[in-house]
Amino acid sequence: MGPSRNSEWRCFFCLHVRTATVLLGIWHLILHVLAISVLAIILRNHQQLMAEQQTTPDYIEPNNLLPTPLSKVKDNDNPYFLPTTQDGRTPYTSDMDMGAVMSVCTLGITLLMVYGTLKGRASHLLPFFCLQLFDFAITTLTATGYFCYLRSVHSLVADHWHNLPFRKELLQLSPQYLSLIVLVAFLVSMLWKAYCIGIIWRCYKFLTLRKQAMRSTVHYILPGDGSERLPEPDYSSLLPDYEAACASVLKQPPPPSYAVAMSCLPPAYSNTQISADSATNNDADNNNTTENQVIQTAVVENENTKDDEQPQVFIGPIFYGINLGWTSPVLPRLENNNFTLPVTLTVSEGSWVGSMIALGVLVASVPAGYLGDRFGPKKCILYFVLPTLISTVMVTLAKDVYLLCAGRFFVGLGAGGISALSSVYLVEIADVLQRGNIASFYELQINGGVLLVLVCGVYIHYIKLTIIFCIFTMFFGIVFLFFPESPVYLLKRNKQEEAINALKFYRSDRFNIQSSIETMRNGFHLREKVNIRKTLVSKPVIRGLVTCCGLTTFQQLSGIDCIIFYNVQILQVADTNTDAYLLATILATVQFLSQFIFIFIVEKAPRRVLMSCSAAVCGVSLFVLGLYFHLKQNKYYFFGMNYMPLTCLSIYLMGFSFGVRPIPWILNGELFPPTVKGLATGIITFVHWMLLFINTKVFPVVMKNSGAQYPFYLYGFSMVICVVFIKLCVIETRGKTLEEIQKELNF
């Protein structure tokens, strides 16, 4: 990589980023071993802990300076605390059990990071990198909460921080100096965490570039006598023999991987790709040459390298997931009359609050593509931050359901616009290989946002929760101001010099910027020559639309968004004698981990097999969950019955993450030719969000008035029909080229 770039891989003035990453991993391993040891001691002595806990004062004190977490508010109808078990275990020791499980999981992620750093496998660093980003977000929320009470920090240290080092010396200081010390300590800790995250990211880039450099290195022979020469390498892996070279001309390249297909881009095909003439009707043959040229211009010339992307752009899906999961911890509080909140909702009003975000996303996603092409993706992303600010003001000032629904509609506008245009922006600035890495974690980041808002919503008032996440959105907008406009948009406006500078902002000097600019220009000029109307009415495109719209319909009829929106309420109705918020957090964690595992198994099995098995698993788990509610309504009980809701929903989320959720969007990238992919995606997106709005609006009302078992019976029956639909209407696309897929659709 050259001596001129050695300084880029240094940290702490002398250490290499790889060495620093290993040391950082060892430090985390030591902390994990200590934490697990302490938890083991605590779990073995839970009786003594219970006795000590009984001697401590109650949680709510008259002079308590911090706000009482909503989970600690006494509610006779839905108590937060778990009942004491027969062996004397308390909710505190149950939290220790959960802490031990999470510590073991994070220990495994840390071991994976250390192993990947030592072995030079960059992909092994990504789980630890995502974990550190999540930890940074939690630390930021904690610091923000303490900043709200910075003036009372002296009393806070005196009344609550009993185990703080140098506590007596700190209490002797004046409140002003103590507040300054606490503020500096928080800022230093945040800067340190950010610096460590930067080290891990730079190590990931180093290992990636190092691996690519080793692949492109030409074998050489050392000077001197024959004894000093390296052994003769095997060139068969680099250059094939004559027969293999001739045969490779007739061999068609496979379709893109899951990561590239999910990036919402036309897949890259080599120049030996046979033109996709079967993608249109026989009367549209005059468009085939132009369409083949469009496909060929999508080839990325720098396939042996990766660009240096800016990680700040990738946080858009997290905001999207946060807004989707907002209703899960908030709505149960708003619908409970025992809480003194500004708004008290009925079930029908709560269904409007939950579903209005879908209507907002639907309204924003339809014109987002046109607005991005007309005014530029960057400007429109910044404009869509404004609805989020308006939503925060409405939710904060809401005294009735109408203003609250309006606020949720505006947050849907902001989330939908930012999510749609962020993907467009990333597509236009990223290399194909880097787009794959970005798209692989898109769904993972959405699930991470759902998990984040669920954990925070247990302890933070919904108004403060909305304000905190609005601050994050504003921070995203401020940072994004310093990013350049999309190079494709600049080229369309004949601003070639600005487009080159924009591309240089994301790519190092090693890349052929001029060649990339020419590829972009030729690509969108050739696309304008294609007759989209004739292509859209062709048989393969119509069959592709029927397939994708049908799978999207069954995806919504599986009830996934209702479970995400109302999982706390579902678990409260299930009445398992366990805190619904704790179970909802477990379910969100299961969904997050399942989506992460799916990234590595999607190319290991055929698409139809994965979808069929996924739909079957979802159908069985939904039927069993409906049976649980049916038995509970008729007052039938048996041993272990309380474990059925958590078990069924966990199996459902795992099965759903392995097929029914992601594969329809993969097929969306594989079934359509590049010329109509954007329009087809728009139609499918419209169907998706319209069904989501109807489903999330009707579900809580039906569950309240008719019984919780009937929606789950309906969802389970829909999954059975989905298996039949997959068998009859969905073709297999794994390992097939675009031409083969279009021929099969045209049959």
UniProtKB/TrEMBL annotation:
One GO cellular component term noted in the UniProt record for this chain: plasma membrane
Domain Major facilitator superfamily (MFS) profile: 309-734
TM region positions: 21-43, 98-118, 125-147, 177-201, 313-331, 351-371, 380-397, 409-427, 439-460, 466-483, 541-568, 580-602, 609-630, 636-659, 671-692, 712-730
Signal peptide extent: none
Key words of the record: Cell membrane, Glycoprotein, Membrane, Sugar transport, Transmembrane, Transmembrane helix, Transport
A GO term for molecular function: transmembrane transporter activity
Membrane topology reported for the UniProt record: Multi-pass membrane protein
Domain of life: Eukaryota
Primary residence: membrane
Cellular localization per UniProt: Cell membrane
Protein name (database record): Major facilitator superfamily (MFS) profile domain-containing protein
